[in-house]
Amino acid sequence: MSLIEFLVLLTAATGVFFSVVAAIGVIRMPTALTRLHCTTKAATLGVGFLVLAAAFHFNDGAVALRALAVIAFLVLTAPIAAHAIARTAAHSYDRAPDAELREHAPSEPTAGDAPPPTS
């Protein structure tokens, strides 16, 4: 087994591991926001490692450059998309029929949270 084959095997196995962890997290996590957290972190790593394995497999500069562009795009856009989805989910708690989203809703400020009066 050559070094390139070993790198392909290692990065592909790591990518599959993270993808399976993301899938299990979607099933096991109790709320929408925690499920979103699992998929954003683990799936980004999983797809990143799988694309890196493809770059190692083809052993071509153009493919490697495209793979790095895909990884950079994933790393830059996945957190932004997750933030937008989480913000929408958190702000739509009052229209949701289930208590899942209401538990993460922003609470009303109490007297202790109010800023001190200015004079």
Strand composition percent: under 5%
Sum up the overall morphology in one term. Answer: elongated
Order of helices and strands: HHHH
Mean pLDDT: 83
The value of Rg in angstroms is 21 Å
Structural class of the secondary elements?
A: mainly alpha
Q: How many runs of DSSP E, i.e. beta strands?
A: 0
Largest sheet, strands/sense/barrel: none
Domain count: the total is 1
Unreliable parts: none
Q: Distance N terminus to C terminus? A: 77 Å
Helix percentage range = over 70%
Number of helices: 4
List the topology elements.
Elements: H1 3-28, H2 32-58, H3 61-91, H4 99-102
Helix pairs in contact: 1-2, 2-3
Overview of this protein structure:
- The chain has 119 residues and is an all-alpha fold.
- The protein has one domain.
- It has helices at 3-28, 32-58, 61-91, 99-102.
- Helix 1 (3-28) packs antiparallel against helix 2 and helix 2 (32-58) packs antiparallel against helix 3 (61-91).
- The longest helix is centred in the middle third of the chain and has 31 residues, at 61-91.
- It is elongated.
- The termini are far apart.
Task: Jot down its keywords.
0% strand
Write a brief structural summary.
The protein has four helices and no strands. It is an all-alpha fold and 119 residues long. Helix 2 packs antiparallel against helix 3.
